[in-house]
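User: Here's a structure from my thesis project, written as structure tokens. My advisor, Dr. K., wants to see whether a designed sequence matches the one we expressed. Can you design one independently, without my sequence as a hint?
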């Protein structure tokens, strides 16, 4: 950090914010201390009128008025998201207030749909940005000058950061702490918060496991998916899976595709990819060993899957996302 004075972090809220969009990142900054146990950040919450602001829960938030910060230098300005974000983005008083604060901020950010407010201010024009996956299309449609990414947990574009939905705001805040006072302090803070600090921004905001559960609404193949995940290094051709499901290969392939919207082969590849990504992030195994243990057979076959599905090689993926190589860059696939 530039000096020993507390780094000022200002959160902008409005009616019907999502409480966790505020509470998660706020807790990260509030708990951050230096080697002497002294608070690194000074956190404040502001709104247009400085009154209590209703959230999407029974909890209301005490705030200061934006105008009280008119002459203050701000280190980090964060606009929170929630159901009220779209209305806030259309409110000229909110937009003007955020713009005035942004002029005095060294770092600007949004959590979840707070990106709509930054976009309305023109602060995302020409920049890569992300929001909750359900709102990415709307953000792109309503603000065509914004380069919307649909997949990352968070994106850093110069001094402007945006995060995906809800808990991704915690990941973004931890990355900011790492940038400010070092990765060791961020890791320590994450352990204290029982958080997963090593989720770099380029990692997907989608859960492959949850995705399978959603596609398989009846849960018919849930036990099969679990068995595949526990046997990814085995022969997982259709006839093997069909036998496991007590079905004929032809009937199994037809019903599985009909039920989940993907072929058994694509499902197996997805589960193997998920395991390979986790291994590359968390282990010191060679790429060839990861490929073998995850059932790809050889590293070239795994490389082709990574290039096709993630647009990056396994080696590059490890370099950018491995626990020991955490970066605060936050751009898609770790690039800036």
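Assistant: Designed independently from the structure alone:
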């Amino acid at each position: 950090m530039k000096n020993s004075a507390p780094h000022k972090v200002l959160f902008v809220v409005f009616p019907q914010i999502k409480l966790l969009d505020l509470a998660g990142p706020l807790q990260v900054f509030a708990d951050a201390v230096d080697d002497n146990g002294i608070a690194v950040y000074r956190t404040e919450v502001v709104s247009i009128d400085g009154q209590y602001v209703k959230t999407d829960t029974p909890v209301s938030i005490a705030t200061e008025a934006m105008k009280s910060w008119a002459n203050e230098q701000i280190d980090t300005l964060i606009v929170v998201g929630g159901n009220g974000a779209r209305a806030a983005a259309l409110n000229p008083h909110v937009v003007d207030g955020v713009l005035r604060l942004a002029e005095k901020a060294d770092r600007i950010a949004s959590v979840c749909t707070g990106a709509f407010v930054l976009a309305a201010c023109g602060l995302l024009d020409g920049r890569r940005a992300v929001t909750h996956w359900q709102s990415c299309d709307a953000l792109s449609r309503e603000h065509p000058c914004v380069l919307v990414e649909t997949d990352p947990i968070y994106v850093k574009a110069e001094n402007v950061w945006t995060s995906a939905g809800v808990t991704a705001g915690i990941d973004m805040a931890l990355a900011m702490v790492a940038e400010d006072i070092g990765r060791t302090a961020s890791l320590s803070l994450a352990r204290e918060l029982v958080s997963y600090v090593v989720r770099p921004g380029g990692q997907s905001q989608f859960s492959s496991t949850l995705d399978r559960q959603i596609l398989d609404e009846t849960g018919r193949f849930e036990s099969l998916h679990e068995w595949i995940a526990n046997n990814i290094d085995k022969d997982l051709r259709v006839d093997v899976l069909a036998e496991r499901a007590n079905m004929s290969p032809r009937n199994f392939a037809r019903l599985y595709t009909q039920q989940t919207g993907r072929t058994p082969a694509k499902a197996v590849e997805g589960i193997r990819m998920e395991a390979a990504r986790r291994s590359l992030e968390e282990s010191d195994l060679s790429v060839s060993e990861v490929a073998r243990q995850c059932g790809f057979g050889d590293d070239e076959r795994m490389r082709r899957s990574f290039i096709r599905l993630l647009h990056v090689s396994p080696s590059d993926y490890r370099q950018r996302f491995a626990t020991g190589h955490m970066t605060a860059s936050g751009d898609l696939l770790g690039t800036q």
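When you compare it with your expressed construct, this may help: Residues 264-282 form the longest helix (19 residues).
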